[in-house]
Amino acid sequence: MSYKFKILKADSTKVYAEIPTCYTVILSSVQDTEMELNGVDELKIPLLEHPGLEDVTDRTVMIQISDIKCASCANSVESAIRNVNGVKSIMVSPLDGRAAIKYSPKLITAKKIKETIEGAGFRVDELQEQKISVCRVRIKGMACTSCSESVENALQMVDGVKKAIVGLALEEAKVHFDPNLTDANKILEAIEDAGFGADLISSENDVNKVHLKLEGVDSAEDINAIMSCLKLAVGVNHVEMDLTEHKVTVGYDPDFTGPRSLIHCVQEASCGPKMYQASLYSSSGQIGKDKVNEIRTYRDLFLFSCLFSVPVFLFAMVLPMFPPYGNWLNYKIHNMLTLGLFLRWVLSTPVQFIAGKRFYVGSYHALRRRSANMDVLVALGSNAAYFYSIYVLIKALTSDTFQGQDFFETSSMLISFILLGKYLEIMAKGKTSDALGKLTKLVPDKAYLVTIDADGNIITETEIDTQLIQKNDIIKIVPGAKIPVDGIVIKGQSYANESMITGEARPVDKIPGDKVISGTINENGCLLVKATHVGSDTALSQIVQLVEAAQLAKAPVQKLADHISRVFVPIVVVAALVTWLGWFIPMEAGIYPKHLIPKEVNPFELALQFAISVLVVACPCALGLATPTAVMVASGMGASLGVLIKGGDALEKAHKVKVVVFDKTGTLTVGKPMVVSAVLFSQFSMEELCDMAIAVEASSEHPMAKSVVSHAKRLRQNFGSCTEEVPDVKDFEVHVGAGVSGKVGERTVFVGNKRLMHACNVPICSEVERYISENEILARTCVLVSIDGKIAGAFSVTDPVKPEAKRVISFLHSMGISSIIVTGDNYSTATAIANEVGIDKVFAETNPLGKADKVKELQMKGMTVAMVGDGINDSPALVAADVGMAIGAGTDVAIEAADIVLIKSSLEDVITAIDLSRKTLSRIRLNYIWALGYNILGMPIAAGVLYPFTGVRLPPWLAGACMAASSLSVVSSSLLLQLYKKPLHIE
């Protein structure tokens, strides 16, 4: 039997611990949760931790320690701290007594570290905690993996930046930095200095900030009036004005004010005829506009280039094939300069320097960074063709005998095809986040804000923008409408369709006191809902942010593309040079038969065409897109199916899983234990047994403890006791994985399993042993109650197996994955559950650290292990496992420790997560085949390997089309993951 407890402070002399609440239960059985209307503290807890910090959990604290005289003292401090749970590293300087301690705030606090040092006999004079901030930045102009690496390197060089992750497909960066050393503006400057555009999407401090666009502001007096009014408003702690954009940024406390109140405050600042107006300024809307503008820019550039390059192509390739119609092109303007050559130069020049300007700019910044990217290859190829053609034009103009072939059509068509490829690629990349877009659109644009009287009757009703809803607002939800915020029902009764969030197909009954989730649909009745979580605090918003963070994180398989891209461009340039020399020298030396050289070109020109084709066809764009686009689509699809994958690392590891370790209670079982019988084993009465059990178990939060308490209360009422008083308990103690104990009056009471009784030297007679055995065969757990060293009685508790468990285990076996139960419960009960669902191996009576050890044992045998659990006692094993999967209705600590969260709390999603991972890795491999296949096949053909035997060669403009097609094919391949269907669907 495994227990999960929150240990509360009993008195000032006892050590106490509070379970961290970075996460609370995700969407945990909303339909079964009844909450008192005055449960204010619970309502303040967000449903999910803000994902902006999900991978920056470690902090560093600087401590000044007195009494350090020598290296031995420093070693003493390090020894005292190093083994404390949660401390990652410590460095103590024996010279000045300063210590830098890196720790996990989820497991320990800076205050606790200070107390530990003082407990070791040293005095702490100063404690300064290093804070890490996070910002997300939109990056413009990245073309390939080389670009994303350049941005990462530029960011890493900024003083104060601790970590920078750049996502090529998402076109975003997430930067972790020390706000004491740098800020978001310096980070943007670093990106721009590297040659890329940058816009700030959000920062950690933006959580309680609102950006307002002002109207009617013309002078300094207007600005001062508005700022003064805002600064005096209740709950406002920061006001910042942007004069160029007439925008004001306001930091506020959401418990006291909100966007609607701040807009009203700006309007109230109006004086006389001067009227001020304010509206919400959304950076997300600006990002959408930027994306549309980028698509439109590439489209316009392509059409512009086509306007000139199509005539060039016609004049160079088509009309000369029809002599009557193309003869006019051979008219000589001066010397050997023909009209056709002159027109091709005039028409190709705007394409080269206007449509192709972005390649020059990109090449300049890349070369300035001492790197090379796609822009360098395109610029080299197009410039080689264009400037050689200029040489031909000048020679034709100045000579009356010169004959040469120009390549103006090559440079213009090459740029046109690459612009077409980029346009189609950006269009396709926009679809990779379709699943995420559908989630964000679940929230309605408008909502009905109402005010009510003391009896709950509606006094006023106003339609407002959903973004203007504030905490504690009362929102009216009509039948068929979407619920705009997370909140609690205060009036009305209805059913809510939560399938789009939880995957639960059946509508959930909602009555006063029940929670509702933003984005779900109110089926039939009218509800009044009090908003408890708005904006980025809603479950839906945090799911979206968590998936966005996962899409930004690089999967380990991406490292292959990064390594290849790092050396790919220089290799391609060398290959192009070797190709040119490999053709030019043999042809000039007469080694290559002259009759095989086309009459319209000389050896130099033919060799140059081969070299340009090699340069262009080998661009590494597709290679860089192979992994991130697949991860984006897969994580979005996972979220829409109720499987939250926290990063590319988890997505990649899940496909290797060969063993799934299951916790029992709340994972394989429903997690709602019920007491089916209670018996007495001594002279104590049933009423005494119930009183003792209630007193001790009331301090526990374990589901089994709660079921014992509720059953004991019912029994006590049956025996005529109507009092609701719970006797006081002293010396309350938790025995991890065994039970609890305490003193009730003068009596010492132990409540727990057989292991607890043996550990506390409580004798167990044969009658009790027989009762335990009989129940364990029936997969029931016996909770024994000992009073003053004697077994007073026992409660038989059963926890029914989840209906889908047997089919899930069977399906895992068909996938070649074995399953194991690791539980703190007794062996007989665990074996009975295992036999029922089809699991062969059982490890029972295991404490939390023992669960982690079992996972490590399996890993030592070379197995990739997934752990599925829901409780606090599962969190060590979830962290130790290669892939930790937390049941959505589990505890906050388990969800925090896991790599994958199963929102619906359904075991079938264990299969979904593993199968989706397999499909994604298979798709990534296929993407690499597409990307590398173009290069492996295209480069030899472009270099002219087939030409001596078949006469087949790849013109540069066609090589450009192939390069564009490679990127498009990789993105399209990733988009096919949107067709993914769950392999097992259990109603």
Automatic annotation (TrEMBL):
GO terms for cellular component: membrane. InterPro entries: ATPase_P-typ_cyto_dom_N, ATPase_P-typ_P_site, ATPase_P-typ_TM_dom_sf, ATPase_P-typ_transduc_dom_A_sf, ATPase_P-type_domA, HAD-like_sf, HAD_sf, Heavy-metal-associated_CS. It is a multi-pass membrane protein. The chain crosses the membrane at residues 301-322, 334-355, 376-394, 406-424, 567-586, 606-627, 928-950, 956-977. Keywords: ATP-binding, Copper, Copper transport, Ion transport, Membrane, Metal-binding, Nucleotide-binding, Repeat, Translocase, Transmembrane, Transmembrane helix, Transport. Its EC number is 7.2.2.8. It catalyses: Cu(+)(in) + ATP + H2O = Cu(+)(out) + ADP + phosphate + H(+). PROSITE patterns: ATPASE_E1_E2, HMA_1, HMA_2. GO terms for molecular function: ATP binding; ATP hydrolysis activity; copper ion binding; P-type monovalent copper transporter activity. Its main location: membrane. Pfam families: E1-E2_ATPase (PF00122), HMA (PF00403), Hydrolase (PF00702). It is found in: Membrane. CDD domains: HMA, P-type_ATPase_Cu-like. Residues 59-125, 133-199, 208-274 form the HMA domain. NCBIfam families: ATPase-IB_hvy (TIGR01525), ATPase_P-type (TIGR01494), copper ion binding protein (TIGR00003). Belongs to the cation transport ATPase (P-type) (TC 3.A.3) family. Type IB subfamily. This is P-type Cu(+) transporter.
